[in-house]
Specification:
40% helix, alpha+beta, 84 residues
C-alpha cells in the first residue's frame, strides 16, 4: 500500500480522526505506540485514548475501506473535505 487517506474510528462516540500519510500500510502500529506512550500529536485523540483506560474502541481504516462501506453515512462529504 502506498500513500493515502486513513481514518481512526472511535466506535463509542462515532468519531473519525482523518489523516494522510506515506506508507499507509505501516501507519497503524506507530500510531498505537504513540497513543500507548501518551505522545500522539493530536491532543483530542490522545485525551480520548487516555480517558478510555482498558475499554478502548478504536479501529484503523483506509480510504478504500471507508468508500466501500455502504453503512457509513456522509462518506462522500468527509472525503471531499479531506481532499480540499
Amino acid at each position: 500500500m502506498t500513500s493515502g487517506i486513513y481514518a481512526i474510528a472511535h466506535i463509542g462516540n462515532l468519531k473519525l480522526y482523518v489523516g494522510e500519510c506515506n506508507k499507509l500500510s505501516q501507519k497503524w502500529p506507530p500510531i498505537l505506540s504513540q497513543l500507548h506512550h501518551g505522545t500522539y500529536p493530536h491532543s483530542l485523540l490522545q485525551q480520548t485514548w487516555n480517558a478510555e483506560g482498558d475499554q478502548r474502541y478504536f479501529t484503523f481504516h483506509t480510504k478504500e475501506e471507508i468508500i466501500g462501506d455502504p453503512e457509513i453515512v456522509g462518506v462522500e462529504e468527509l472525503l471531499a473535505e479531506v481532499a480540499s
